[in-house]
Amino acid sequence: MTRPYAEVIGDPIAHSKSPLIHNFWLDALGIQADYRAVHVPPEGLADYFAQARSDPAWRGCNITIPHKQTALEFVEDRGGVRESIGAINLAFRDGNALVGTNTDAGGFYAPIAGLDLTGKPIIVVGAGGAARAVLFALSKLDVGPVTILNRNVLKGAALLAGFGLKGKALALTAPLPAAALLVNASALGMEHHPPLDLDLSPLPEDAVVYDCVYAPLETGLLKAATARELDTVDGLDMLIGQAGLAFEILFGAEPPRDRDEELRGLLTA
Ligand code: NAP
Questions:
Q1: I want to staple 150 with a disulfide (CB 3.0 to 4.6 A). Which of 15, 101, 156, 226 is the partner?
Q2: CA distance 181 to 123
Q3: Is the C-beta atom of 155 inside 6 A of ligand 1?
């Protein structure tokens, strides 16, 4: 029998850390399967899914930029992801069906599951795909007002309304309100992007600062939060979290999360 496999598809794809994460867990659990990165340009997406569907060894694929929205056309959307987050990061085989889902929201939430955010004000920077996953997760919690800071303020306001969250959208230059949690879900601070310069002084001492960006891992935002002795969560926690949920679906086994420190070492080497 052909060895089962899963993939991550995107354009570009060489930078993806997903193969390292999934193969680390496959090796750790002794599962005889492979996980690899495949370069799929936009014009190749339909052919990719047609071929994958016809190969019984193919378990599914993670989906990254620029396919997270267009891939919805090729899958069954059983969880209503199109209407909520509006993007999928995983397609998997279920019998003869190809099902799409999004594990970014769960991956974002896992590292802060222990925080009581009930009624607490939150700040989210960004209004793209990652922000949508973050806002979806927040909309499932009974959080207080959400302030979105974004270059395109109208886009931020539309997202708040779309997710049924109370709050307001402001420009990136607006002073921060006090908040229990600040999440950077924008590309600011990422390699080859401008930094995210925020004055964190309005945040209370027990605020948590969470950066979804993982390249670099220690962003300027996290450095500034650490200088203020605030608790921080970095983008690798979310990356490993979303991969863990995908791994369970793709390979039917729980990943060995007790080995996260070793995995983080490999990812940052
Ligand atoms: P995206 O959909 O392209 O959205 C990018 C966001 O950043 C938009 O809100 C955009 O503002 C803003 N932005 C980009 N360039 C900007 C600039 N020069 N000035 C001001 N704002 C700018 O990207 P995404 O998929 O949401 O990804 C955002 C970040 O999250 C990336 O660093 C990505 O690697 C990270 N991410 C991490 C994980 C994880 O597991 N840790 C998962 C997903 C994404 P406008 O709305 O005004 O265009």
A1: 156
A2: 6
A3: yes
Whether 17 is a known active-site residue: answer: no
195-230 pLDDT, tens per residue? 999 999 999 999 999 999 999 999 999 999 999 999
CB crowding 205-217: b at 16 or more within 10 Å, else e: eebbbbbbbbeee
Predicted TM-score (pTM) of the model is 0.94
Residues 6+ apart with CB under 8 A from 22: 6, 35, 243, 246, 247, 250
Binding site membership of 61 for ligand 1 (Cβ less than 6 Å): no
Considering 17, 68, 120, 166, which one is annotated as catalytic? 68
Q: What angle do CA 154, 168, 192 make, to 5 degrees?
A: 60
Q: CA-to-CA distance for 45 and 63, rounded, in angstroms?
A: 11
**5-10 vs 58-63, strand pairing mode:** parallel
Q: Return mean pLDDT, the chain.
A: 96
Q: Which atom of ligand 1 is nearest to the CA of 189?
A: 32
Tell whether ligand 1 has an atom less than 6 A from the beta carbon of residue 150. Answer: yes
Q: For the chain, how far is it from start to end, CA to CA, in angstroms?
A: 35
**Ligand 1: does its nearest atom lie under 6 Å from the Cβ of 152?**
yes
User: How many whole angstroms separate alpha carbon 221 and alpha carbon 199?
Assistant: 10
Nearest to 134 by CA among 151, 149, 119: 149
